[in-house]
Design goal:
The protein has five helices and no strands. The protein is mostly helical and 169 residues long.
Length: 169
């Protein structure tokens, strides 16, 4: 008998899927800090190269899709609720996406160098990126995602379908 493995959310449950993405953000953001510490002690060894590759892959491929899910689908649907505080929060989060992108562009070259086997000191932008991302997703989960329960099921289904299409599904 196979051990029980947790069932991953599907596109039928887009908010659960976005939350699962946040769990991956938490994992990769914390890995950024551990990688900086590891390379300071051990250089860009095999473990460091593997970790850097995972971080680069996640924040280059998955994170931009996640931002698009929010900015193109979820946030516009939630704006329809007419909640001024929610709308202001979503605008601040969209602005934060831009700030996160800028920090990523500063941190990414170091991660790519580690992938290639070279490691100097990690840039301050790496720690700033990880910390800001963690604050960002906590705010989304606390101040935005709960409002999704007020969206009609067909709207949520359409958001999930667009998320799947964005990923080629």
């Amino acid at each position: 008998m196979l051990p029980n493995t947790p069932t991953l959310p599907s596109f039928e449950s887009p908010i659960e899927l976005l939350t699962a993405c946040h769990d991956k953000v938490r994992r990769f953001a914390s890995l950024c800090g551990r990688l900086a510490e590891h390379t300071a002690r051990h250089g860009a060894d095999g473990q460091a190269r593997t970790a850097a590759a995972g971080i680069v892959r996640y924040f280059t491929v998955a994170a931009p899709l996640h931002h698009a899910d929010e900015e193109a689908d979820l946030f516009p649907a939630l704006r329809g609720l007419g909640e001024d505080v929610l709308t202001a929060t979503m605008q601040a989060l969209e602005d934060d996406h831009e700030a996160l992108d800028a920090l990523w562009e500063q941190a990414r070259p170091w991660l790519e160098a580690v992938q290639q086997g070279s490691a100097g000191a990690a840039p301050a932008a790496l720690a700033q990126f990880a910390a800001r991302y963690l604050r960002h997703i906590e705010r989304e989960e606390r101040e935005v995602f709960p409002f999704a329960a007020r969206l009609p099921k067909p709207t949520l289904r359409a958001i999930g379908q667009r998320m799947a299409q964005r990923r080629g599904g």
